[in-house]
Design goal:
mainly beta, 15-stranded antiparallel beta sheet, 50% strand, globular, 265 residues, single chain
């Protein structure tokens, strides 16, 4: 089971809205998160009626400086649980350095070990000329392109109350030396019960590209907290064999009150 999948799940979970050009989202003011925030997720895998705990992921935010600019240093660590490592062992780390003033990525590092298959990729973005310089080469990228982590935190600042049910938004993401042009469809609001508790949420569905894990189309469902934090609280999707589910399990130092939480378990 490829844990890049689960990092992408969370990235997809926070982007929704009407059709707009990518350039309209080149600048935003951060009101959704702050330095010191940490989020912990757990992943379950299902091949029948039983859900098996497969892994966990932790996301953290710190303040830093890069090339004379103030940045958010965002990290994501994903690993399989010990009880699941007989099947597939994962130790993944993703890092993104995001310009505080523009919310655009300046640098991205992927350092993963998945079943003994190791990948290291260091990417430096030059947003002014639409260029990404990675460990493997130089690539042209669209204006305001995001990496898989910066996309999460940029999109958390979207005001979903302005969007209509059924609307979608295109966005560009650079990952593994490729540009992915995707969109997310906004499905409305509903209350959902997770392993952490009951939340009022915004429901969305990303367009997925068929690959070794996912079926193509809009089969994934994602529930985002309906408050100023816009946290993904549950993600569920069928995959080629079975299905997966991810829940927010713990958090610390949120910028805003978690007003969407109706009842904690």
């Amino acid at each position: 089971m490829n844990y890049k999948t689960f990092i992408l799940l969370i990235a997809f979970s926070l982007i929704a809205g009407p059709i707009r050009s990518q350039s309209e989202f080149c600048n935003t003011r951060n009101t959704a998160f702050s330095e010191g925030e940490q989020l912990r997720f757990k992943v379950w895998y299902n091949m029948g009626r039983i859900w098996v705990g497969a892994g966990e992921a932790v996301f953290s935010v710190a303040k830093d400086e890069l090339h004379g600019k103030k940045v958010f240093h965002i990290t994501a660590d994903a690993k399989t649980l010990k009880s699941y490592e007989w099947f597939y062992k994962v130790r993944d780390r993703y890092e993104s350095w995001v310009d505080v003033s523009t919310m655009q990525p300046l640098k991205f590092v992927r350092n993963v070990d998945e079943g003994g298959f190791k990948i290291y990729n260091n990417v430096v973005f030059n947003q002014n000329i639409g260029q990404a310089v990675s460990t493997s080469g130089i690539f042209q990228v669209p204006k305001c392109v995001q990496d898989v982590l910066s996309a999460i935190y940029y999109a958390r600042n979207i005001d979903y109350d302005n969007y209509k049910v059924g609307a979608r938004i295109p966005f560009s993401m650079f990952l593994d030396d490729k540009v992915y042009n995707l969109y997310i469809r906004y499905l409305g609001k509903e209350q959902v019960v997770t392993r952490y508790g009951t939340f009022n949420t915004i429901k969305i569905s990303p367009l997925l590209i068929q690959g070794s894990i996912f079926k193509g189309g809009e089969k994934m469902a994602i529930w985002v907290s309906d408050d100023a934090n816009h946290l993904p609280v549950r993600i569920g999707s069928p995959i080629l064999v079975g299905s997966i589910k991810m829940d927010l399990m713990d958090y610390s130092k949120l910028r805003n009150e978690l007003a969407s939480l109706v009842k904690k378990k």
